[in-house]
User: What shape does this take?
Amino acid sequence: MEQDNNYLAKLQDYYADNSVLPPYSTIMSLLGFKSKSAVAALVARLKLAQYLESTPEKRLKPGSRFFERPVFDSVRAGSPHPAGDIHHDTVTIDEYLVRQPSSTVLVTVRGDSMIDAGIMEGDTVVVEKRNMANIGDMVIAIVDNEFTLKTLGKEKNEFILIPANKAYAVIRPRGGLEIFGVVVGQFRKYK
Assistant: This one.
């Protein structure tokens, strides 16, 4: 299966570049196979392992495990410890961050009012759209017809929105406060 993992990695890279899986003839040249029967055998193994599936038109498409990524042993952010490349599990980012796909959206952060919570300008937050939130939840709220990302709080029986940057004041809505959704995760891409 180790060689199959290398082949799968090449198919994943192809998919990332083209947003589609290649036909058998392209797989044959991409992976250096001499025959389409070798491709068919590989595809059968990858289907059995749920990395690939077929559409009703018999084209290849990603299977339920296609986007899994290995989770390697932990790394210390302090003093170094012995290196190892043994992974314990796999996870797909969607399964990890998205509980309800139909009500989940990604929102790009603008501004620095949540910087002390580790949310920087340009980060993407994963938001479950819902109109209810608990005190202490990080929310996307609509205040006076404008969106903002803050922590939901309560003061004297009134809801407030708390920034995570001392340069910003707590928002005490004068008009309406509507919860657009609750932040359930975040990510950022480094250059």
